[in-house]
Amino acid sequence: MRHNKKFNHLGRKKAHREAMLSNMAASLILHKRIFTTVAKAKALRVYVEPLLTRAKEDSTHARRIVFAELQNKFAVKELFGPVAEKIADRPGGYTRILKTGNRLGDNAAVCFIELVDFNENMLKEKADKKAAPKTRRSRRSTKATAEAPAAESAE
Length: 155
Prior knowledge:
- The chain has 155 residues and is of the alpha+beta class.
- It has a domain at 12-116: CATH 3.90.1030.10.
- It is built from six helices and three strands; from the N terminus they run H-E-H-H-H-E-E-H-H.
- Helix 1 crosses helix 2 and helix 1 (14-31) packs across helix 4.
């Protein structure tokens, strides 16, 4: 029975799963977007978001804790440099999972997981929405307003 076992084991033993998540987290930090299966992406999100939160405070202790998880000094340098600057004011939700369909070979659900603040297309759309002037529209239909003056003039 799997009582009280809340995370996905991904069909791997503990050491293999931890090594895989560490490598995927380092790749996500270095490349800002990686393609993977939906199950792995969801497991990676749970793994990497606390590391991103830890990177907001640049201290030796925080760097050592993150390095103990990632085992990749280039990823740690990138995380505490440009990535930490961009996520400094965000209160969580640093990653986005976008499903892309199914893989041809085994029909597995595939997606890409990316760092939210590094997708230039999404940031551009968000800026365009803020810049667009908002128009106020009435809830009344144009037909009702057109008939009202005609009815008044008939009397």
